User: Which sequence fits this backbone?
């Protein structure tokens, strides 16, 4: 087998201090050059701050390499223009603007034709509701707008922060399908609490605890290890509403790997 | 009846002036969370720029026709440049320090009138408006000064232009989005600081135009004009809802009319108080102003 390609995004010793409080104490993570990498951890572990730190939305120190290039000193808009699509935790939809205007904002002049065909194929509803104010959409529809904005530009990396949070099961499936489709072409960094979605989408995972990296490795290995899942993620069995041990991915991928590197989280 | 007509036109004319200041103030606050206490100074810069040019200092400019139009354009341009300089040199370095930012704009708001009075004196200077605009017209028994409908017309044109800009252009879209969530705009790969400069330029242009037309309305220019109008512009912005252009337009009309009618029918000076009472009453009922949103 050929060696694994270099990671698309490499984060080293990411530290964030907000209002004198240390939120991140040195996060290390890698986003693989293909597929979905899940960013996991209990509430308050620092997942969203990590994502915001990567994007420069909060003051941070450390190293953030995008395709080998240091970006930690770049402004958010300059970094994003290098090919990052970001769907934030609160969806970041502009309530007073229409759906069409929300999408138009994500267009990048000079970055090629925006991929409206793909967006409308995945979310036909957005075409029908183009003129509707985004603030009047349901949570699921707003999430579709948020994800659609990441798909328009032929990005090199998509970052989705809890895209299924608070959504009805049917919409969760729809959103997961769209991300699965997106991940075929673009690597995705996915912050997610719903382990069924993680199981379905993620190949790799990074677990944070108390603002530090506690674990990195193949996602299915972690989900298959009930004890590790309980300790790192605080869940009784590795999968909400699903059997604990049903590896959905091809078994060959997890079988031959050495044990995932696990570092003890600070209490 | 004649009094009512005259008071209405005067109130609307004053409202037009308020709108020219408040529209920029409201956009700037809505987008950038900056309370620009120097906005009145931009009006004064526009007023003095126009006065200076129309007084024969600028070749081609004068008090009549195209010459006066050129003087107004010059005054507006000087105010616009001053606004851009203010944003780039004073506001931008202080984005992470809002308290210092407010102090800096207060400082500029005090320094500019002081500078103007140091150069041209503290007394009011007669404003050389065109003869065509200095007359009156008869309406329902009232002799209404011609500059009132001119002011109202210009304010309506500015309102329409701003609405077109916000509603139809990509820059306008960025501004509307930025009013809602600035960080998300940058997270979409847009340099929101360029929108800041643009909004300051637009707000400065409107205020400076207000200064030029204020010269017509008051018949004179003085260094403190901008600052005293700014107070009522703040009342307009809060009444209309921070960041809302339509709210600013409606509130400008309301404040101008209430002030004129109350000043005439009660004791002079009570109109100014009435406006503040109006604001307080509105905030009790609708804490976010008439409308909490833009456009």
Assistant:
């Amino acid at each position: 087998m050929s060696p694994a390609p270099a990671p698309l995004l490499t984060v080293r010793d990411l530290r964030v201090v907000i209002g004198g409080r240390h939120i991140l104490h040195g996060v290390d993570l890698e986003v693989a050059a293909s597929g979905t990498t899940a960013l996991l951890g209990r509430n308050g572990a620092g997942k969203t701050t990590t994502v915001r730190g990567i994007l420069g939305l909060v003051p941070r120190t450390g190293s953030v390499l995008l395709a080998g290039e240091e970006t930690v000193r770049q402004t958010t808009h300059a970094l994003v223009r290098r090919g990052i699509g970001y769907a934030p935790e609160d969806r970041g939809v502009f309530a007073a603007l229409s759906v069409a205007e929300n999408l138009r904002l994500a267009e990048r002049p000079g970055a090629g034709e925006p991929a409206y065909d793909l967006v409308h194929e995945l979310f036909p509803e957005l075409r029908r509701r183009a003129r509707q104010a985004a603030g009047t959409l349901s949570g699921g529809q707003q999430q579709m707008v948020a994800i659609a904005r990441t798909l328009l530009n032929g990005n090199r990396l998509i970052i989705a922060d809890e895209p299924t949070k608070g959504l009805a099961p049917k919409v969760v499936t729809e959103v997961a399908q769209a991300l699965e489709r997106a991940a075929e072409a673009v690597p995705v960094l996915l912050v997610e609490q719903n382990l069924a979605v993680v199981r379905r989408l993620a190949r790799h995972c990074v677990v944070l605890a108390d603002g530090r990296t506690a674990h990195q490795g193949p996602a299915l290995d972690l989900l298959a290890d009930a004890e590790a899942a309980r300790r790192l993620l605080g869940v009784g069995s590795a999968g909400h509403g699903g059997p604990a041990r049903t590896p959905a991915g091809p078994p060959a991928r997890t079988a031959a790997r050495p044990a995932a590197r696990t570092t003890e989280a600070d209490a | 009846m004649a009094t009512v007509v005259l008071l209405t036109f005067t109130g609307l004319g004053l409202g037009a002036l308020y709108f020219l200041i408040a529209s920029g103030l409201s956009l700037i606050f809505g987008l950038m969370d900056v309370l620009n206490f120097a906005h009145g100074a931009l009006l004064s810069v526009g007023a003095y720029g126009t006065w200076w040019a129309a007084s024969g200092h600028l070749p081609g400019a004068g008090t009549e026709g195209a010459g006066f139009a050129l003087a107004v354009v010059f005054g507006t341009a000087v105010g616009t440049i001053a606004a851009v300089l203010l944003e780039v040199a004073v506001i931008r370095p202080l984005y992470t320090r809002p308290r210092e930012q407010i102090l800096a704009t207060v400082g500029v708001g005090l320094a500019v009138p002081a500078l103007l009075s140091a150069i041209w004196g503290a007394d009011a200077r007669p404003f050389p408006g065109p003869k065509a605009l200095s007359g009156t017209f008869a309406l329902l028994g009232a002799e209404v000064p011609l500059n009132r409908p001119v002011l109202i017309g210009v304010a309506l044109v500015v309102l329409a232009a701003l609405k077109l800009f916000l509603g139809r252009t990509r820059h306008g879209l960025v501004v509307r989005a930025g009013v809602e969530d600035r960080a998300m705009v940058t997270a979409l790969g847009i340099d929101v600081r360029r929108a800041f400069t643009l909004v300051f330029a637009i707000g400065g242009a409107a205020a400076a135009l207000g200064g030029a037309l204020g010269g017509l309305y008051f018949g004179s220019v003085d260094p403190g004009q901008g600052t005293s109008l700014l107070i009522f512009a703040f009342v307009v912005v809060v009444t209309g809802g921070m960041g809302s252009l339509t709210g600013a337009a409606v509130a400008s009309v309301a404040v101008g009319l209430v002030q004129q009618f109350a000043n005439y029918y009660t004791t002079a000076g009570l109109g100014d108080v009435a406006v503040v009472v109006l604001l307080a009453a509105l905030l009790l009922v609708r804490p976010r102003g008439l409308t909490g949103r833009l456009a």
Q: What stands out?
A: The CA atoms of residues 81 and 108 of chain A lie 8 Å apart. The interface with chain B takes residues 55, 57, 75-78, 80-81, 84, 86, 88, 92, 94-97, 101, 104-106, 108-109, 149, 153 of chain A (CB under 8 Å). The radius of gyration of chain A is 18 Å. The mean pLDDT of chain A is 84.
